[in-house]
Design a protein that fits this description.
The complex is a heterodimer. Chain A is mostly helical. Chain A has 17 helices and 2 strands. By secondary structure, chain B is of the alpha/beta class. Chain B contains 14 helices and 13 strands. The chains are: A mainly alpha, B alpha/beta.
Chain lengths: 434, 339
């Protein structure tokens, strides 16, 4: 009997894991080919992906960037021996010629810097709201941004946005002084009534007379020159920025103990949610015209913005109400037991938690709202989809479908995907359930 | 005090409303621009180029009216309208004139309270089929699948045509013209039907236009024309006679090239002189100056020039004059005399 005993004297140095377990090969073995059904599925799916890409990629990579018409594209593709415009290759010349129009509509090209500046400032104005690392001083920019943006895009006398903005100062002063003199209810009433009176009766004569004394302004751009993605972003950002606060107020109103307030909020929410957005857009574009006196120039884009905001607010209210309902009753009682009044309790205890719960729903509503802006093409506004119809009316590009839709889809995807990523970042940042 | 100011505002608004309804001409002149409703984009008829400048067969009517009224063919604010918004836009006063290849029908004229000022294009519904299908007449289309835009008069005309000829068809409902083109080319339907002008421009965009034929049958009457609101007859007259001026100019041989010369020096033809204001004062009867028609013609030329430039045989759309030839050439384009 041989002696098989063996005593190792030294520790074998660690070796790298075998090639079949690490790196790409290991990953594939583990995730793609771990057993027979998985292997079969991988092969089938891989075949589909490759055959789809094999059809799409040659179409996408088509050397037609410099062409000036569909006919020329077809010539280029025929020279390459490809099977024509439909399956053989895309005709990207239309994007080269019209991409600025798809972004800015008919905005005068020498003034493109104005919407671009407005867009850049939008980023800065949003920074203190979106990221806690941004400088707090930017919040002042956020406060004046809506008026600045209006002035940058529409132009005209600077005194109009300035006098409208001073309505808020009037509201603040009214609240402070009336509050001191007559008590808090009168203060609240004054803070609402005074700016409304200011806007109705003082704003326009004051801005006109100020403009005649000190004519500061820029070239005015009419609304019918706005279009393309600029229009979609304008409507979308307005709707998003206004629908969240209005939605929160509506949600609180719906949960309120005051019967009339509650009834008003419920009626508003249920009415708006019961009506399709396209109906509201038709109301904006046609019905309002008939009710308003002829000659009253109530801008169509403004009307659409109001309708879109109302629509989004009703949905937002329900999303926020979902968050409120998810909070345990103990949180409300805890706020009460600390002796906080209603607004303090909402601000410090309830809303931070309710809004955090509602983030996915809120962002979904935002994304839906932004994509819904394409519906305005049905009432004749030239948003990206409306413009694509117009571009096709040019005989040089008539017959082009997928290139335009693809471009529009890509830009929408960039906007919506970044919103969705931001919401995930926010959720991670605010996560407290460790 | 506040109350009286409030009621004062309302009264002023009402007064302004009554005043505004009284004279579109005065409103347009006060605003310094003509608000003209056009399509959101239709090949040859209305489109904006890469710089946002509108052009096309319907657009030319807007520019002619603006030139006649305001003296500047560019003093037009083009309002893109869709098939759904066009009539309310006109009725509510958002636009002063609608030139959006709109078919003149009884109910639109009478029931919707509009006034069609004339016909600038005689269209009719036709059919297009691949040559490979081997049909030479729409009556051979028994059992065919037909691509058709829903909710249009074309849909109803199609049903009427097939019923009266005792043949059957299968509709493939389509929402937009672009979609219809794609579906037809993909073979989702045997036949594509829409207005003949639309068929011509669609066929012109195909890779191989010769593989498709437009069948000879025209199954409906679609007289397309500009329209205004009921109730302001003076404004209607201005639009009507501007269109007539373009038509008469072609008949009399007044073109964009020679209109300036004819306007400067009265010639021997009295009707040309009356048209261009070198004799009589027809413009004064409309509330305009004498050279109104001369300016309208100078913008884009006469009716024939506008036709040839936008949709004629030398354009990619390539529509022959046909019914839209001047009556002197056997067409239907005919204007009442300038007298």
């Amino acid at each position: 009997m041989a002696d098989l005993s063996f005593v190792r004297k030294e520790i074998i140095p660690q070796r790298a894991a075998p090639l079949s377990q690490t790196g790409i090969i290991g990953w594939f073995r583990k995730n793609m080919f771990s057993d027979i059904p998985n292997t079969i599925l991988t092969i089938i799916v891989g075949y589909f992906i490759i055959s789809i890409l094999g059809n799409i990629l040659p179409w996408v990579f088509s050397p037609t960037w410099n062409s000036v018409s569909l006919t020329e594209c077809r010539g280029i593709l025929a020279e390459l021996g490809r099977s024509g415009h439909g399956g053989g290759g895309a005709c990207w010349g239309v994007i080269r010629e019209r991409w600025l129009q798809l972004l800015f509509g008919f905005y005068p090209s020498e003034l493109y810097w104005r919407p671009i500046l407005a867009f850049v400032l939008l980023g800065l104005a949003l920074a203190p709201v979106l990221f806690d690392k941004a400088s707090r001083k930017l919040i002042y920019l956020t406060a004046i941004y809506p008026f600045l943006c209006f002035w940058l895009i529409w132009g005209g006398s600077i005194w109009f946005p300035v006098t409208v903005f001073s309505g808020f100062i009037v509201a603040y002063l009214g609240y402070v002084y009336v509050n001191k003199a007559f008590g808090s209810l009168a203060g609240v009433i004054a803070s609402i009534a005074l700016p409304v009176l200011w806007w109705l009766f003082i704003t326009s004569p004051l801005s006109i007379s100020l403009h005649s004394i000190m004519p500061i302004g820029s070239e005015a751009i009419e609304s019918d020159r706005l279009g393309g993605f600029m229009l979609a972003v304008l409507i979308g950002v307005t709707g998003i920025a206004l629908s969240l606060p209005i939605g929160i107020l509506l949600a609180l109103g719906r949960q309120s103990n005051l019967p009339i307030l509650k009834a008003v909020c419920v009626c508003f929410i249920e009415f708006i949610r019961g009506v399709p957005l396209i109906t509201l857009l038709f109301v904006a574009s046609t019905l309002l015209n008939i009710f308003l006196p002829p000659g009253s120039n109530f801008d169509l884009i403004l009307r659409v913005m109001i309708m879109v905001t109302l629509f989004a607010s009703a949905y937002m209210a329900e999303v926020v109400r979902g968050g409120l309902a998810a909070l345990p009753k103990g949180q409300y009682e805890a706020a009460d037991s600390l002796g906080l009044d209603y607004w303090k309790a909402q601000r410090l205890i309830i809303m931070p938690q309710a809004l955090k719960i509602s983030i996915p729903g809120i962002v979904s509503t935002f994304i839906g709202l932004f994509k819904d802006t394409t519906l305005v093409s049905i009432i004749g506004l030239l948003d990206p989809l409306g413009l694509s119809t117009n571009i096709r009316a040019d005989m040089a590009w008539n017959g082009i479908l997928w290139e335009l839709y693809g471009f529009v889809g890509l830009i929408f995807f960039i906007f919506c995907f970044s919103m969705s990523r931001y919401s995930m970042y926010l959720e991670r940042k605010l996560a407290t359930g460790h | 005090m506040k109350k009286s100011a409030f009621f004062g505002t309302i009264a002023a608004a009402t007064f302004a409303a009554g005043f505004a309804a009284a004279g579109t001409l005065e409103d347009v002149q006060a605003a310094g621009e003509l608000k003209c409703g056009v399509t959101t984009g239709l090949a040859g008829f209305a489109l904006a180029d890469a710089n946002g400048v509108w052009d096309g067969f319907d657009v030319a009517v807007c520019r002619a009216v603006a030139a006649a009224v305001l003296g500047d063919g560019n003093a037009v604010k083009f309002v893109p309208t869709t098939g759904k918004t066009r009539f309310t836009a006109l009725a509510s006063g958002e636009i002063d004139l609608l030139a959006r290849n709109t078919t003149w029908t009884f109910s639109r004229d009478v029931d919707l309270k509009f006034e069609f000022v004339g016909v600038n294009y005689y269209d009719g519904q036709g059919f297009m089929a691949p040559k490979a299908l081997g049909v030479s007449s729409a009556k051979d289309l028994d059992g065919a699948t037909v691509c058709i835009q829903t909710g249009t008069t074309t849909e109803l005309n199609l049903a009427d045509f097939f019923r009266s000829n005792n043949i059957s068809y299968e509709p493939v409902p389509i929402e937009t013209n672009a979609e219809a083109q794609a579906q037809y080319l993909a073979g989702a339907c045997d036949v594509f039907t829409t207005d003949a002008s639309g068929l011509a421009s669609t066929r012109a965009t195909f890779e191989n236009p010769d593989d498709h034929i437009v069948l000879p049958e025209i199954v409906s009457k679609e007289p397309l024309g500009p329209l205004v609101r009921h109730g302001d007859n003076n404004w209607g007259d201005i639009a009507r006679w501007t269109l007539n001026a373009l038509i008469t100019a072609e008949e009399l041989g007044v073109t964009s090239a020679n209109v300036a010369e004819h306007t400067a020096n009265a010639g021997n033809n009295p009707e040309v002189n009356r048209l261009l204001g070198t004799e009589g004062d027809l413009g004064g009867m409309l509330g305009l100056d004498k050279q109104w028609a001369s300016r309208a013609i100078a913008v884009n030329g006469n009716y024939g020039e506008i036709f040839e430039k936008n949709i004629g045989v030398n354009t990619p759309i390539g529509i022959a004059r046909g019914l839209n030839a001047s009556w002197t050439n056997g067409g239907l384009i005919y204007s009442a005399p300038f007298r």
